Write the C-alpha cells for this entry.
Amino acid sequence: MNTTYHHPRRKRYRRAMGRRNYLIGGVSGAGKTTVCTELQRRGYHAIHGDRELVYRGDPETGLSAAPETATPTAAWISKHHIWNIKKVQTLVKNQDEAVTFFCGDARNFAKFVESFDGVFVLEVDLNTMKRRIAERVALDPTDWGGKPEEWELAVRLHQTKEDIPKNGIIIDATAPLARVVDEILRLTDANNPS
C-alpha cells in the first residue's frame, strides 16, 4: 500500500509504507559526497550514488555508451553520467531500512525521481563551488574539475542548473557540515522511523 508524503514547498512524491527514500543532489562541489559520508558516520543508510550506482550510458534508453574518441570530453562524460535505474528501484523497494539517502547526481534522474519521498538540492555560490573543486583537485588531480574543460563545464552547470531537479528543497550547503546534515534530518524527520 502506498501513501503520499506531503511537503508544503514541493511536489508530492509516492512512498512505500514504513520506508522513506530521499535524493540529495547539487552541482559539483556542493558537498554531496561529504554529506553522504557524514550521514553514514551518523548511522544512516546513505548511498554514494556517484560511486555505487553510476555508469556511462544513454540517459533516455539506459544502454551503456562508449565515447566516439579514445579520450571522452567533459561534456560527453557529464551527459552520459547516469544511474542504474534497476538498482535504484531495488534499493527504494527494500524495506530493511527506515530511511535511505541517495547522494549524487545522474543525468537520468527524471526516470526515477518520482520514486523518492523528497529531493534536496545542496546549493552553494560560485566562489564556494570553485574553492571546493580546487581543494578536491589539489588532493587528487584526476578528480572532476582538474581539467580546464571540466572546470568550465562545472561553472556553466552552476549557472544554468540544468542538471538539477527543479522541485527539490534548497539546502544552504555553505553552512557548516553538521548544520547541513541536521537540516536534512529535521526536514525528513529521519529520527522518527515511523
Notes: Confidence is low (pLDDT under 50) at residues 1-18.
